[in-house]
Write a structure and sequence with these properties.
By secondary structure, this protein is an all-alpha fold. Helices cover 51% and strands 0% of the residues.
Length: 322
């Protein structure tokens, strides 16, 4: 009861924060000059928090063992959703000087500070997810989403890159006993995902072509991907959901490209044809008709050739007999 009251109160406070911060949330991207300043400031952080900084720290007394846990790849960060933000936007008071203040982590900005609107919707979805059953108090956005690397699907665009990024999040835990043990309740063993998915043909190939969330989130949620991660009992197991002309992938993995293609050309089949072959979803009626004609012509040609051979052979034999 108390937990429900706290969540309700938090949602009310977040809503008020959204209304108060609406102008800030609508800020335009930084200008070239502002971005240059951000890059310069971030470079000071990367001087330590990078592979180069680990090999040759610019300051004395750096705890290299601790530093190794907090390395950031500058190019990957620059290409991420937060790549145009200053490190100090999230890492505020206590991080300006080295060594960082003992309680600096307490001042870290939380995701909902900027993503308040989404946070309210996501929390409602998460409360119904399999992750909330035993991990609601310890599972955070950062458990799955690394703010230094994550990029929206609409930004990555290439479905193969989207799949690689998103499935890595799932497989890093669900395909590793060590990683799973760090998050899971005590004494809970990692379920063998290959055995659980033994009903799915070419399982590992599927994981390279589509995301886990295509099947493990509610099928009816078409507006945006849900954070209601479902267990194996609720997950989608109907092949036709993807492998049909009305494939759900158009509203999921390919939805950003599909919307763009729909506006540009009036059809969306080219999105899938240009990305991967999905049996049953990538049919082209004109191509199908052409292939049928070609197949029929081949059959007629083979039969005709055989018939001509039979006739000519008999004619030659009859001439010899004469």
């Amino acid at each position: 009861m108390i937990g429900h009251f706290r969540k309700t109160l938090w949602r009310i406070l977040v809503l008020l924060a959204v209304l108060a911060a609406a102008p800030a949330l609508a800020d335009d991207p930084p200008s070239p000059d502002e971005l240059a300043k951000i890059r310069t400031g971030n470079a000071a952080c990367m001087a330590c928090h990078s592979e180069a900084g680990l090999k040759k720290p610019p300051k004395e007394g750096v705890d290299l063992k601790a530093l190794r846990k907090y390395l950031v790849h500058a190019d990957t960060y620059a290409a991420s959703d937060h790549g145009q933000m200053a490190c100090t936007k999230c890492h505020g008071d206590g991080y300006d000087n080295h060594p960082h203040a003992a309680k600096a982590r307490e001042g870290l900005s939380e995701c909902q500070d900027c993503h308040a609107r989404k946070a309210m919707r996501i929390e409602r979805q998460f409360d119904k997810s399999v992750h909330a059953e035993n991990l609601s108090d310890t599972f955070t956005c950062a458990t799955c989403h690394d703010a230094h690397t994550m990029a929206l699907a609409s930004k990555l665009r290439d479905p193969h890159k989207i799949v690689a990024q998103d499935n890595k999040i799932c497989l890093d835990c669900h395909d590793s006993d060590l990683a799973f043990a760090r998050i899971a309740p005590e004494k809970k063993k990692r379920p063998p995902i290959d055995d659980i998915h033994d009903w799915l043909p070419n399982t590992r190939l599927h994981w390279k072509a589509v995301r886990c969330i295509e099947c493990h989130t509610p099928a009816e949620d078409k507006l945006s991907l849900s954070h209601e991660i479902q267990n194996k009992d609720k997950a989608e197991k109907k092949c036709a959901t993807c492998h049909s002309a009305n494939t759900s992938l158009n509203a999921r993995l390919y939805r950003h490209l599909a919307t763009e293609e729909q506006h540009k050309y009036g059809f969306i089949n080219s999105v899938i044809l240009g990305s991967s072959y999905v049996v049953g979803a990538t049919r082209n009626p004109t191509l199908d008709f052409g292939l049928i004609i070609l197949f029929a012509a081949t059959v007629v040609g083979v039969l005709g050739h055989g018939l001509v051979r039979i006739i000519t052979t008999r004619l030659r034999r009859s001439k010899k007999n004469d």
